[in-house]
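Aim 2 progress update. The chain analyzed this quarter is reproduced below.
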Amino acid sequence: MTSRWTSGIHPYLEPAPLAALFLGISSGFAFAMIGATLTTRLAQHGITKSAVTAFALTFLAYNLKFLWAPLVDHVRLPLIGRFGQRRSWLWLTGVLVMAAVAFLGVADPDEALYLVAVAAIAAGFAGATFDIIIDAYRIELLEPRQLGVGSGMSQYGWRIGAAAAGALALVLAARFGWAVAYFTCAAFTLPAMLVGAVMGEPARHREPAKPHGALEAVVAYFSPLVEFLKRQGALVVLLFVLIHKIGDTLANLSLRLLFQDLGFTNDEVAFYDVGVGFVALLVGVFVGGILYERLGMKRAVLISLILMAVSNLSFAALAAVGHTNLGMAAAIGFENFASGIGGVTVVAYLSALCNLRFTASQYALLSALASIAGRVLTGTSAGWLIDAMGYVNFYLLTTLVAFPGVILFWGMMRSGLADLSIGSAGKEP
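Predicted structure tokens:
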């Protein structure tokens, strides 16, 4: 029994998956600063629901990051570029994220809401670029056999970063103000930067051909997309990536509004949403790893998609019941458990779709498509939908719009497209 436990835990203790954990911490923190944390801050300043949800549009940088991701693949930075393509970009973007988060901390919603919007856009752009290089570094550092474990560890890290930074920001803001909270949380950028120093340039990194002249540069820019579109069923795969998280994104980016209107305090949100949610996520990632190993990637992905869709019903129930700590714990627990499973399975699938010559560009495209529809809908319509329908019907709607993605992936499994779409990142050399 001891030897079975040791062999089961060993993959998580290998250097590459451990590095994925620390990369995820920095990625999660940056997202949280313009996500739930900023939503809470704006709500506490009395900003209207429509204005608060409109700030979800700052996440568009994450959805549009594929537009400049080819630069991360092709452009060698001066001076620090001698340390390697991936490491130099990792360090540069880390510094930019620190500066942007500090800017967001000093912007005051009461004095100039537009300045907060500018700061949030800057933080979104810096964080999205940071994500481009973090994802490329992670995928190229992991071997194909480690994609499941590495994706799980990355999700652990993401949630640790988001939860720790989010909770710390709430606690510090209540005692010392939001500026101190944001300045302190900027230090969460350091784990990823230290990974680059310790692990070096990833062994699986493949340099794309260097363009010579304007025409070759244009060809190189579009090469990642062209390579992907040449695969059998590529458009179907891209459609799945586009729609599979619509319901989940719609629900999650409006949760802090629900908690605020139900009268939950900062301390309650920090304990239940951040604390209980994090424990549930740990369990979900562990279960996701077991499903991935026992059932294989495809069936594990399908199960996680179903669970993530159904989990939105728990928020409809919470909205119907009202302010109850037990109800909040149950809703947050279920949602994070489902997200933990999906974090292992879906992220591993998206990582496996990449070609190692274009890791940054292709994963940026895939991860951007994965949530752009939900974020656009949240920023443009969630506020008035909640006002018009009420929270209960809104979360019932988010459950319904999640199921087309489930059905499409089931069809991809039946037709074989889920296997045919895998790129070189998901194949043994």
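Residues 12-426 form a domain with the Growth Hormone; Chain: A; fold (CATH 1.20.1250.20). The chain has one domain: 12-426. These observations will guide the mutagenesis experiments scheduled for the next reporting period.
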